Amino acid sequence: MDRFKKIKNAGILGIIGNIFLLVIKGTVGLLSNSQAMIADSLNSAGDIFASLMTFIGNKIASKPGDEDHNFGHGKSEYIFSLLISISMIVIAIKLLIDAITSLVLKNELTYSIYLVIVCIVTILIKFGLFIYTHRLNKKLNNILLKANSKDHFNDCIITSFTLISVLLSTIGIYWVDGVVGIGIALWILYTGIKIFIESYNVLMDISIDEKTKEIILDLVHNYKEIKSVENLYSTPSGYKYIIILTIFVDGNMSTFESHNLADSLEKDIMALDNVADAIIHVNPI
Fold first, then answer.
1. What is the reported pLDDT for 71?
2. Which CATH entry fits the domain spanning 3-203: 2.40.50.100, 2.40.110.20, 3.40.50.410, 1.20.1510.10?
3. Domain 210-284, what architecture?
4. Across the chain, what does the average pLDDT equal?
5. pLDDT score of 87
């Protein structure tokens, strides 16, 4: 199964799981007037959007390069992860306002065993989805999977706190429900901002990390024929980078020899996991 098919399957699985959780959490949350559970259900609505964006973004990113997009459509992954982050931030602000209002008005939830059951079911489903997407992201290094993996893990923590607030309500401690709602909102906001920054950096052509730069320079220095190297540039292309650099060789070296040298170095650089292509300019010295 290829990379894009695996990511598509993860998106579909996420959509199905989150629709189910949205229905049961939303129903029980509204019936019991639990701000934490209502916040949790709206978080699931955001998860459906995130999974849908994963599905669409992955479909576009899987298209090969063409005349209009020479280096492929890989950046669509980051465009859609940016949309996911914006949706998370909007939902977080809405939840924060509602939770603070509930806390100020001292609204009380109506305890139900179904609240406990829904929390446990949510934790089990979300933990399973987290394990699945986390392992897949380790293999494929995809920002959409990374965003979904973090989201599933966050949901496990969020619902655990929701469960605590529900159990505390049985002994008359209702204010925790509002506090947990605020905590959920802040957590979603924090995660959304992190994903936004990461996506924004790639879309703004952030350079490759310093560690990889050092590895590339070490590869260059393995060639004794290369006298010096200048202008090591990089630009993201999906989840990988395009490397552009200029090397200087002996002016007496033939054009054929210098091009063979550049081709060999390009192959070495492109063997790195996070490099999609390498373009080397050769200058005489």
1. 67
2. 1.20.1510.10
3. 2-Layer Sandwich (3.30)
4. 83
5. 80
